[in-house]
Sequence to fold (183 residues):
Amino acid sequence: MNGVIETIENRRSVRKYKPEQIKDEQLEAIIRAGLYAPSAVNQQSWHLTVIRNRDILDSLSRSAKETLAAGDNEYLKGYAKMEKFHVFYNAPTAVLVSFDKNAIAPMADCSAAIQNMLLAAESLGVGSCWIGMTAPYFSGGSHNAEFGIPETHQPVYAVTLGYSDSEKGKAPERKVGTVNYLN
Ligand SMILES: Cc1cc2nc3c(=O)[nH]c(=O)nc-3n(C[C@H](O)[C@H](O)[C@H](O)COP(=O)(O)O)c2cc1C
Fold:
């Protein structure tokens, strides 16, 4: 099978990581892949913040959990109340993805960058997971200065990166009826 398609089909979210840090060249290749995503009218409206500091990752996980625990989504509350739950699954690296508040299609741009990073990670033998649980914390107020993010941007998602410490699961079944063809 074509290597790109194989990478797409093999990628799975990783939720258990080895403590070992990924190699600098792997990180750089993954970030570069993110930056090569398509974007509406080529605005490249994302801002990526690479966090490799354990204290910052742990502190952000705690803050995100506090926000989720105070929210009204029972599903997310359940996770937030689990003492051992870490929103980044203790991965050694997380990339915070911020969107330009004035861009034309910032969520689409950021999502394209995220998917590129997930696929690049898979192709390099690096585990990854798209993290949305950071979003409520960042939507509640500006934390930009703390994370060195331009005021024009707002953090939303994160991508965890690290070497997987779990067996690769099977891809969830694909829903049927989500495609139609007009020939
Ligand atoms: C917008 C978005 C937010 C997500 N947020 C989380 C998250 O906070 N935590 C998590 O473990 N997985 C998160 N995921 C990953 C999905 O749960 C995962 O992609 C889905 O279950 C399919 O599994 P797969 O990635 O192994 O194919 C998120 C995915 C997307 C697209």
In short: The chain has a mean pLDDT of 97. The beta strands are 46-51, 93-100, 127-131, 153-162.
